Amino acid sequence: MIQLLLKKELTELLRTTKVTWLLVGLAALLGLALYNGYAYSTTRSQFLRESQHITYQQFISQGDKNPHLGAHFGFYAYKPTADLALVDNGLEDYTGNSFYLEPHQRGVVKFREVSDATGLRSFGFLNAGYFAQFILPLFIFLLTHNVFAKEWENGTIKMVLSTRVQARQLFTGKLLACGLVVGAVVATLALGALGLLLVQRGAAGLGPVLLTYGCYVVGLTMYAVLLTVLGVAVSLLARSSALALVVLAGFWLVGVFLVPRLAGELSRQVYPSITAVEFDDQTFREKEYGMGNEGTKDHRRALLEQRTLAKYHVKRLEDLPVFYIPITIEYFEETDGLVMDRAYAAVERNEARQNAFVLTSAVLSPFLAFRDFSLHLTATDINTHNDFAQQAEAHRRRVGRVVDAFYQKHTVASNDFWKTVPQFAYSAPGLGWRLHNAVAPLVILLVWLVAAGGMAVWAYRRLTA
Amino acid sequence: MLQAEQLTKRFGAHLALDHLDLDIRSGEVYCLLGSNGAGKSTTINIFLGFLPATSGRALIDGLEVSVNNHATRNMVAYIPEVVNLYPTLTGLENLAFFSGLSGYAYSRAELRSFTQTAGLQDAALDQRVGGYSKGMRQKVGIAIALAKQAKALFLDEPTSGLDPHASNEFAQVITRLSSQGVSTLMATHDLLMAKNLGHRIGIMHQGRLQQELHSEAVSYAELTDCYLTTVNQSV
Known about the structure:
Chain B: Keywords: ATP-binding, Nucleotide-binding, Transport. Chain B: It comes from Hymenobacter mucosus. Chain B: Residues 2-231 form the ABC transporter domain. The complex is a heterodimer of chains A (465) and B (235). Chain A contains 17 helices and two strands. Chain A has helices at 2-15, 17-60, 67-73, 92-95, 113-116, 128-144, 149-154, 156-161, 167-238, 241-270, 276-289, 297-312, 325-360, 366-377, 382-407, 415-418, 431-464; strands at residues 75-78, 98-101. Chain A starts with a helix and ends with a helix. The model of chain A has no long low-confidence stretch (mean pLDDT 90). Chain B has 235 residues and is α/β, with parallel strands linked by helices. Chain B folds into two domains: 2-75 and 151-234, P-loop containing nucleotide triphosphate hydrolases (Rossmann fold, 3-Layer(aba) Sandwich); 88-149. Chain B has helices at residues 40-48, 69-73, 91-101, 108-118, 134-147, 164-179, 191-197, 220-234, and strands at 2-11, 14-24, 29-34, 55-60, 63-64, 76-79, 152-156, 183-188, 200-205, 208-214. In chain B, the strands form two sheets. In chain B, strands 6-7-8-3-9-10 form a six-stranded mixed beta sheet, sandwiched between helices. Chain B has a four-stranded antiparallel beta sheet with strand order 2-1-4-5. In chain B, helix 6 links the parallel strand 7 (152-156) and strand 8 (183-188). The model of chain B has no long low-confidence stretch (mean pLDDT 87). The A-B interface holds A 1, 4-5, 8, 11-12, 15-16, 154-156, 158-166 and B 48-50, 70, 73-74, 76-78, 80, 82-89, 93, 97-98, 100-103, 128, 144, 148, 154.
């Protein structure tokens, strides 16, 4: 019986002109989304890899110089393109991709893609993630809105219910038919992206990301199922195509446009961000006057001098067996580093509170929950960006220590020394870390799935009544 | 075959059906006449299980509809004023689908025999129903009833809007089914059709069965007079 219902539903759907055009349009968008993701991640990945190589080569080929001046020559730490940026580039365009490694000051991540993009970028970047988050739900709602409603509008429901078919079978048949069409779209998306990942990374490179990608696909499937169930349930409850479409399209508009923007705005009101001027002023004061009772910079400089003289059992700096300047550089690098660590930690805590606030609003919008899940799984989220910034800062200090240690004994560094300065290489944290970050949106998606199921049961009971 | 025992239906304060008693034998064609809102369609909807009765019982072949809805639905076919079919499916696909829902899987030749009996031309079988006339849809509806091997037919204004030829063809099919033992309960405004096709005629008004006549015992003129008198007296 269900097979019969399924066959009829699929025949009907595929013979409906608007569904045919919808599928044609969807296929074009999906193809474009996959191509965009592939082209973006491939080009960007190559550019960043080459840039990292070039900047380091320039640094280690700078020739004979005072070590500290040579350190100021500096080089960039580039954030490599995320391993699943082909699927979803998330916040990559907005967070910047490079961090300048130079003594004394923690770098600020630079080169945001959007700064070089045209105004059209404000519409968003069409890739697989964007397609899944925003276009797929609209397609599902357009597909499902009249799956039951049309039976009432055409009057066929009485003809159907005057047969031996049971409401359960009718419901299952329609849900399965919609599920099959949606499943075909999701499978095309998932397999298309997988094929492009294989082309991009090769068989050997695919292995490490396969499990993460599998988890992404599981989340995507769950998202598609909940939206399909929701669409069918609304169609059954509304009993009017127009009403069902208004409800579902309204839900999409509110969930995609209103809730995220409102939540973002409110999160900034509730947890205001520190301004750049305030941040600079605060960190300057703490560097100059200390974070606690350790005294002013001059006082600490005097104490350092006393400690150093005592350590080497001499009375004058000129009598030290090592250069004193790198010792002060290293000392203030560490103390200023503590100030900056604390300041950035406060910024990140506030960001985390804002993000948690926004994520909470996902109880009103499954689109937001899936977006968050997608960002975490593809490592294009703010957490990964902060992890990169921390590792780049740690590398900057590592380079400083290497240079300062050399500088204490040598006033000139040659390329032989510069080659000993370690290159920067960042790799995003693995699946465990990503899943840990994705737990909250995943739970919200599960709650939505259960709620959609509950709504479907309620709608089904109305059908049987 | 079809029995209504003190069947009553209320929609809030409105009494749509008032203690209706009916007993329709196998092979009998029973026509319900009455103005709009008389309770004809409500009666059919209760027999089909689309509406629950407020009180009383509707029975099909001895089974109470409200208790054995799944079983009773297997025994009946329903042809409304406009037979609503799936417009993107062909006539044959619609027939295969609805007979399949009733548990019958027929070959194309068997399905074709039902449509032939119903009077649908072969040329129309593989055309989408969206392009069918009302009469053609009615014929598919009859073919569905034949394919379901229904013991009882419920017809709700089935000839409304049909041309005389199509209406006559329809009547012939119902008569043939009647001779095969199929009971029919038909709600109609068409007094002539009721007189010619029905064995018995019930005249309803304001939810009550006001008159019951044997069609052989009355002329068309007497039936018309009785109908108008009943309806006007009750206003």
